[in-house]
Amino acid sequence: MSYTFTVADTEYTVPLFRDLPLGAIRKARRIEDEMDKAFTILEEAVGVDSDALKAIDSLTVSEFGEWMKGWTQGASLGEASSSSN
Which is nearest to 54 in space by CA: 18, 7, 20? Predict the structure, then answer.
């Protein structure tokens, strides 16, 4: 599944957090700083040079917080790497 969002009247679609390949999470597993971990996963998910990431970068901190809630559907990034399910 995917997550669709709009920035400046342009629609973008990225994979839902829960549907990311395990490798995207695995690559960030040893990063201790939570912010670095979150941005590493985000860049892996949407592509470091993608138009979607450029649009996300243009969001305010508040807008980004809302974007993250939608993209992750409320799951924390740590839940994905520490879940036993």
Answer: 7
CA distance 46 to 14: 6
Q: Which domain holds residue 22?
A: 2-82
The answer to whether the pTM exceeds 0.85 is: no
Q: Is residue 85's pLDDT more than 90? A: no
The residue type at 46: V
Task: Kindly calculate the radius of gyration of the chain based on its CA atoms and give it in whole angstroms.
Answer: 12
In tens, the pLDDT along 36-59 reads 998 999 999 999 999 999 999 999
Q: How many domains does the chain have?
A: 1
**CA 17, chain centre distance (Å):** 6
Instruction: Quote the tokens at residue 42.
Output: 């985000």
